[in-house]
Amino acid sequence: MSTNINASILKKFIVNNLGIDKLNRQQAQEYDIKNNEFLSADVDENNYLDVDEILDNKDLYAQFATLYVEEKEKEAEAKSADQEKEEQTKVKDKNGAGV
Questions:
Q1: How high is the pLDDT of residue 36?
Q2: Across the strands, what pairs with 49?
Q3: What are phi and psi of 16, to 5 degrees?
C-alpha cells in the first residue's frame, strides 16, 4: 500500500473518520499496531500519542496511510455498487414503461 498520502489529509482522516486526537495503547492494538512500535514513538507520560506524533513516526504513518487507502477503496466499492443498482433500476423502469 502507498504511504504517499498528504499529511494534512491523513491527519483529517485520523481525527474525523477514526475519532482519534490522542492514541492510547488499547486503541493502537485495535489498529494492529504492535506494542513496541507504539512505545518507540514519542509517547507522553500518560502513554498517549497525539496525531502529530503519529504522523512524525514513519511506521505509524505508514499504517494509518494504509487504513486511509483501504477506507477509500471501500467507499469506492460501495459507491460503485450503488451506481450499479441505480442503473439496473433505470433499465427495469425503462423496460416496464414500454409494456
A1: 83
A2: 23
A3: -80, -45
